[in-house]
Structure formats: structure tokens, C-alpha cells
Amino acid sequence: MAQPVTDGKGKSTGTVRDHYGSLARRGNTEYAAKVKGPGLPATLMPLWGWYQEISEGRSSGGMGPSVLTWGDVLAWQSVTGVTLNGWEVGMLFRMDAAVRAGITPA
């Protein structure tokens, strides 16, 4: 939800999260749940945190965030010193697909 939102003239008006937060503060429970984040089991929370860190460093295309790449993961591992197992990387890619599916207009 860190994607910038722009007005019709290309000027940034905040992020999707900012807009959802504004709606949540006005009592919209649907958006309050979106701002709160996913209901993940405690064992997956580190993966979600890593996913968010990696996502902050990647570029976005004209239609939303770009697809998570092996290069993104390797660069993040190099900078942080964290070494991920294969199943963890696989989960990051599955998380990315789910997140992008949820924010990409149909």
C-alpha cells in the first residue's frame, strides 16, 4: 500500500495507505481492516516484514508495483545480511503475487 496516488495532473496526493487510513478514520470499517494489514500467523510475520522491506526498494511500473524479482531478493539479502531459505523466497514470491492481484485494477 505504499504506492503513490496521483491526481489527474500527476501530482502526488499520498499513498494508497494514506487514503485508506483517511477513510478508516471516518468510520469505514472495510478500509480500517485494510490499513490494519493481513491476519497472518505469528510464524509468517518475519516473512511479511521482509516482504515489506524488499518492496520498499523496488521500482513501480505505470500500472502499479513491478513484479518481485530474484534480483530484488538478492540485493536485499546483500544489504541486510539475511540469508533466506528456498521455501522462504518462494513464499515471498507468492505473497507478491497475492498483493499485486489485490491492488491491480481488473
Structure summary:
Helix content is 56%, strand content 10%.
Q: Keywords for this structure?
A:
106 residues, mainly alpha, two-stranded antiparallel sheet, two-stranded antiparallel ribbon
Notes on the protein architecture:
- This protein is mainly alpha-helical and 106 residues long.
- The chain has two domains: 37 residues, no CATH class; 67 residues, no CATH class.
- Strands 1-2 form a two-stranded antiparallel sheet. A two-stranded antiparallel sheet has the order 3-4.
- The two termini are 17 Å apart.
What oligomeric state is this?
single chain
Structural class: mainly alpha
- Mean pLDDT rating: 80
Q: Helicity level, as a percent range?
A: 55-70%
How far is it from the N-terminal to the C-terminal residue, by CA? 17 Å
β-strand percent reads 5-15%
Taken together, the total number of domains comes to: 2
The neighbouring-strand order within the major sheet is: 1-2
Number of strands: 4
Unreliable stretches (pLDDT < 50, length at least 5) are none
Sheet with most strands: 2 strands, antiparallel
Give the SSE order as H and E letters: EEHHHEEHH
Please, how many helices? 5
User: From the alpha-carbon coordinates, what is the Rg to the nearest angstrom?
Assistant: 15 Å
Shape: globular
